[in-house]
Specification:
Blueprint (H helix, E strand, L loop, with lengths): L1 H34 L5 E11 L2 E10 L2 E11 L3 H16 L7 E6 L2 H7 L8 H17 L4 E6 L7 H12 L12 H22 L26 H7 L3 H12 L5 H7 L17 H6 L15 H10 L12
Parallel strand pairs: 1-4, 4-5
Antiparallel strand pairs: 1-2, 2-3
Length: about 325
Amino acid sequence: MTFLLVVSLFTLFQNAMIKTLTSIFNNLDDLAIEVSDIPSIALVISDASVKNNVTISILHIYIYNKPITKTLHHAVNITSTEVELFVIRCGINQATHYNKISKIIVITDSIHAIRKIFNSSSYPFQKQLAAVLKELQTFFSLYQENSIKFWECPSHCNWSLHKAADAESKSFHPTPLFPSKLSWDFSKKQECNDLVNRWKMTFQASDSKGKHFLDLVDGNKNTLELSYIKSSSWLKYFGHSNTLCARALRAITNHIPIGEYQLRFFPRKEFRCPYKLYPIETRCHILHEYKRFNGYWNLRRDSIDHIILFLKLNPNGFAFSLTIY
């Protein structure tokens, strides 16, 4: 029964993801069909990619169901956010040059860059933001009815029009000219990356990490690396719940109320397995061999998804509770 429950939970999660992508795909198709016979609407498809510090941005503009413009830019040593804001600016600028365009619809996989346009707080990329807002001001001042909408199209959605733009940007292999200047944001990002890489090397090579740190992988089997940014690699999975976050961090650091912990810090207290299956109750055998928690067990306990599922199915697991331990 428990095995069927776990399989059902994963199946529901996967079906929800498929349903979400299908919904996005269908909504974009409906949108494209709806605007295909309206000559006053410009459909702007934007995409950007970065490879070996060379950023490539591409625009496809459709009006009245016809491809009107294809524009490709490339630059060296700028951040992906800079190029995403630049390509959006170019799309708005070019769309407004066509007669009787009263509505612009921008479809992009970089919705995080779009949000920066409407963020009034102080942050990097203000230069790019000012340029985009200037284009919008010019467009809105022409006619009161003018409007713009932004739609998100994740790359893995594989929607036809965006997929074509994405494939074209990745097929372009420009030869960068050297020496080239570095943008301020790129220099700042590069310096941060260097610091973080040194920190990661120090963390892995020294005793700072300790012997009990649990290395985890994501759904693609990629190691979750340390990060200094908000939400980081781990927090986005369980940061929404203080209780879940606390238990997950205890499991990752092995600072948990089990026999192994008792033996390290309180050697006079009981440290044996409560079911007498092992001399010492350890995190390893709880995650990989022990089956008393809700009957749920899975070999891939180095996966963040399985750890979170384990904690959700067992609300008392890795929790400081006198009734459990």
